[in-house]
Amino acid sequence: MPLKAFRGPKVWLWRWRRNPLRRRADVVEAWVVLGAFLLTVLSGVLAGLAAAGAVEHGLARERSLRRPTVARVVTPLPAKPAAREDRAPAGERVWTEVRWTAVDGSSHTGRIRVRSGSAPGTPVTVWTDPRGRLVDRPTSASEAALRATLIGLLIGVSAAAVPCVAGLAVRGRLERRRMREWDTEWARLGPQWGRMV
């Protein structure tokens, strides 16, 4: 409570008000802080929204181009039992060769992971691009929204950090300059202070 008595009441926007003690550096610092704040918010929001929109659009385009296709297992999986320690547990997936027919009628083969114990001719679902090549399963709409949000946040924070750090650096430099000016004036006026009393 005593500290508040020495500091006095907080006055908003004091750097823009007319005051004989206000210096040019105070006004410059006020504009630097305001500009850095506005640039930080604007760049963060705009960069984040742009990145999230681009990711969302790209994943939606990927979903529209990839399609599920039924393929058949070609390569028989090893039939001989392995050693008890090496035996694959039930439900484990193993690599094998599969064959499918593309939309244009051409036949393709590729390697995918299927459930162990799948016999030749077993149907499996694969994802293909417009040319009939194997691709990964596309992200769902909810996965795409989550990924776009996370990437948008990361890009937005990164973009906002640039003007924020620049504004802090300029403000720190102005503060050091103001302190040097105060030291210079105190060195000039300090000795006269004692004579007045």
Automatic annotation (TrEMBL):
Residues 111-131 are annotated as: Disordered. The chain crosses the membrane at residues 27-55, 144-170. This is Integral membrane protein. It comes from Streptomyces eurythermus. InterPro entries: MT1774/Rv1733c-like. Keywords: Membrane, Transmembrane, Transmembrane helix.
